[in-house]
Amino acid sequence: MAWVWGQLDFAGLYSYRMPNLSPSYALTALIPSPAALRLALVDAAIKSRGNVAYGEEIFEIIKTAELEIEPPERVAVLKFFIKRLKPAKPPKTEFEESFGIREYCHFLGPLKVYFKLSKREDEIVHLFTLLRRLGTTDSLMRGLGKIEDKEPVQSFTCKETTALKPDVSNLARRPVSTLNEIRADATFSQVNPYMKGRKTNPYVQKIFVLPLIEERRGENWVIYKKHPFTL
């Protein structure tokens, strides 16, 4: 077993709408969901070879692989009131205006992702270099990867609430996000958006606490800094 260390550097602002929230009130998670990270690599695999079967192979390798996510040194969260254009209802064909709230993050430093794998590590490293965005279409980024024998520092990676000691140092002033993860029994056809007639939900929602604490707050912004968990 070896760890593939992925480093994601974002070119500008980042946004990933939390599940079950309306697009009109799109609060962002401070990190992409585990499911989004896994499927981003699957998408990169398919595009790299123009071969859906290769994407399915990668999916089977990483869908249940141990995954750790480490946020940047600091994260600024900004809340904007925006005007949007959305398709008008038939029979109209033009766009109509609407308004909403959207949050964006600004990362000070890279987002780090760690996969524990037993095979084809070199391919996953290569797929990290092909990633171009995560979250919204304007969340542009580049990825790097390498293979390491050592584990990531567990006190600096995101944790499910059930994995933490319920003390003040672990929970006070820390951001919490509900994120999607892929079910262990999910199939490739269930996560493939081009497959018709999907009936079973391939995702499960999990609550994560981030190794960050609130540092400063304003009217429409918050700054968080990295702070380790007590494990």
Side-by-side strand order of the widest sheet? 2-5-4-12-11
User: What form results from the Cα inertia axes?
Assistant: globular
Report the sheet with the most strands, covering strand number, pairing sense and barrel closure.
5 strands, mixed
- Looking at the structure, the CATH topology is Alpha-Beta Plaits
- Identify the CATH architecture: 2-Layer Sandwich
What integer is the average pLDDT? Answer: 90
Order of helices and strands: EEHHEEEEHEEHEHEEE
Give the structure's gist in a few sentences.
By secondary structure, the protein is of the alpha+beta class. It has helices at residues 34-49, 52-62, 121-130, 168-171, 188-191; strands at residues 2-10, 25-26, 66-70, 74-87, 95-108, 111-117, 141-148, 159-160, 176-182, 203-209, 212-217, 221-226. The strands form three sheets. Strands 2-5-4-12-11 form a five-stranded mixed sheet, with no helix packed on it. A four-stranded antiparallel sheet has the order 3-6-1-7, with helices on one face. The chain has a three-stranded antiparallel sheet with strand order 8-10-9.
